[in-house]
């Protein structure tokens, strides 16, 4: 529990179920807490190690913090923007309102109305920025490169999960549903694996109740192709970094994505990526060096690009090494945290957001 007088930035999380936004808060807030400001998350579904304030402490937000004229309320969802506006305009809380948008589609009128009432807006990619009709600053996500890193010994990483150290693995990680393109990955593997006996495929991620039939249909298709032992559903994992470390190739087949961290996580672990042109993927992957981008929802393009990397060990291994260097140079979580702190500092001192490195 944090002392509310010491809190300068509040990161609300008004969704209990794990999501990309929640994951971002869980990674960033503890890191920023160790830096040069007081920050706490607020809301349900957060692990104990995340600094946070409790509901009974909310009245304390109506007073100024100990060392600042105001606090920053950093919203990442519509409902959190609404919460900040209510606190400021109904209860007169001394807040500056900041919103981070990852959406790559035109906002609905109500969302536009909310965004126009923010003191500053962040876009998580250049593509996202084009959908915003207000001034904004691009701050791209980063990842923890101590957690996501190549395996010391890939053979040992495979043995730890009962896999043959000699097998090569193509992976697709994320929630199992049509939007995420899991069916495209399955179909691509059904086409590719029969001619490549040294490869298998793994699908990691959660299937919610409304998408259970979708998964069942995929399993039936895999079984009909006689590949149930080579295309495996391995469920959701809290230590997903270890599953990346056993991969030789990662596929990101999404049909839609806001930002999309999985290519960053894969490259940080030394795994080249074939990704659909959605989200920020084209801004994350160095074409021809760390992986390749294919047209969204184009199965044949995905099959062709994947086959090229599967069949070229030298190119694939070089792309893996290049990916590690690329992520460590450009997408460290610390860089994102520092750029956000610059934004917070400017808001608390002048109410304006700075131009910072993307």
Describe the model.
With 358 residues, the chain is α/β, with parallel strands linked by helices. It has 2 domains: 4-142 and 332-349, Glycogen Phosphorylase B (Rossmann fold); 154-330, Glycogen Phosphorylase B (Rossmann fold, 3-Layer(aba) Sandwich), CATH 3.40.50.2000. The chain has 13 helices and 12 strands. It has helices at 20-33, 78-90, 109-116, 126-129, 154-159, 182-192, 212-224, 240-244, 262-268, 281-284, 299-310, 313-330, 333-349; strands spanning 9-12, 39-42, 71-75, 95-101, 120-123, 137-138, 168-173, 199-204, 231-235, 249-252, 273-276, 291-294. The strands form 2 sheets. A 6-stranded parallel beta sheet has the order 2-1-3-4-5-6, sandwiched between helices. Strand 8 (199-204), helix 7 and strand 9 (231-235) form a beta-alpha-beta unit. Helix 6 (182-192) crosses helix 11 (299-310) and helix 9 (262-268) crosses helix 12. It starts with 8 loop residues before the first strand and ends in a 9-residue tail after the last helix. Residues 351-358 have low confidence and may be disordered.
